[in-house]
Automatic annotation (TrEMBL):
<feature type="domain" description="Reverse transcriptase">
    <location>
        <begin position="34"/>
        <end position="296"/>
    </location>
</feature>
<protein>
    <recommendedName>
        <fullName>Reverse transcriptase domain-containing protein</fullName>
    </recommendedName>
</protein>
<dbReference type="InterPro" id="IPR000477">
    <property type="entry name" value="RT_dom"/>
</dbReference>
<dbReference type="Pfam" id="PF00078">
    <property type="entry name" value="RVT_1"/>
</dbReference>
<dbReference type="InterPro" id="IPR043502">
    <property type="entry name" value="DNA/RNA_pol_sf"/>
</dbReference>
Length: 296
């Protein structure tokens, strides 16, 4: 966990545990084992402070133009990371999920979609894409559905109860310019700012998209002058080198290697991704083999 983060209601920053070294490791290990065995975390961890951040769009006087972030106990976040690490060993998320997954990013998905669109356009074949924007996705996840999806994903009942305990009797206050509100219960959605929420959301999306993936094997999910030209060329070659160094099962490699039946249009063909790469390599005097140890 990075230093310099805003603290929760207990005012204990993660830097405290980092400074204590081995003593902190022993204490936290004992504490987390007790929480796991009892399936009950300290009551102090159930409290949080909600701060609002403007989304830089919309009406500044509208509540919908703000994103709520919960300031939670750093010690609780360390416990969440322990739980997340164990859940990742059990839950198998589909390969089409590119949000909140190690070694995957939405950039990979965007790159794969671009190459796929180019190949379909060159072969004069139809390609249908569907984009779904989930508004306030974290805030609207029904918790009963979350427990159901965890069980369907093979999570042991004990860890389901541990995660349930993280959400039971949770209370928060809203911090604003004139002070704080009274405490109120939070009974729906995932915690914004929680270390565990991204993986829980990915688990829910994985289970809810099972039927869609059975029909469409290419579903991809992911819940902007001279000196500038040099920078663009450098970034493009770096990304191509990244793609070439990845394993053969990597989605970017698969898209580049994929061949589709069909013929390009007879008029002047549109510029493709590899056209730009070939021009860049010719300009700098490089070859595809150079990607093995360069362009990092």
């Amino acid at each position: 966990m990075k230093s310099g983060k805003a603290v929760g209601p207990d005012n204990i920053p993660v830097e405290v545990w980092k400074c204590l070294g081995e003593a902190a490791v022993e204490f936290l290990t004992s504490l987390f084992n007790r929480v796991l065995e009892s399936e009950r975390m300290p009551e102090e961890w159930r409290r949080s402070v909600l701060v609002t951040i403007f989304k830089n769009k919309g009406d500044v006087q509208s509540c919908s133009s703000y994103r709520g972030i919960k300031l939670m106990s750093h010690t609780m976040k360390l416990w969440e990371r322990v739980v997340e690490a164990r859940l990742r060993k059990v839950v198998e998320i589909c390969e089409q999920q590119y949000g909140f997954m190690p070694r995957n990013s939405t950039t990979d998905a965007i790159f794969a979609l671009r190459i796929l669109m180019e190949k379909y356009r060159d072969g004069q074949r139809e390609l249908h894409c569907v984009f779904v924007d989930l508004e306030k996705a974290y805030d609207r996840v029904p918790r009963k559905e979350l427990w159901y999806c965890m069980r369907k994903s093979g999570v042991a009942e004990k860890y389901v109860r541990v995660v349930q305990d993280l959400y039971e009797r949770s209370r928060t206050v809203v911090r604003c310019a004139v002070g704080q509100t009274e405490q109120f219960k939070v009974e729906v959605g995932l915690h914004q700012g929680s270390a565990l929420s991204p993986f829980l959301f990915a688990t829910v999306m994985d289970q809810l998209s099972v039927e869609v993936r059975q029909e469409s094997p290419w579903t991809v999910m992911f819940a902007h002058v001279g000196h500038l030209g040099d920078k663009v060329r450098e970034a493009r070659l770096r990304w191509f080198g990244h793609v070439q160094r990845r394993e053969s099962e990597y989605i970017g490699r698969r898209m580049l290697d994929m061949e589709l039946p069909g013929r390009r249009q007879r008029e002047r063909p549109k510029r493709r991704y590899m056209d730009g790469i070939n021009e860049d390599m010719k300009l700098v005097g490089a070859s595809v083999e150079d990607s093995e140890d360069r362009w990092r």
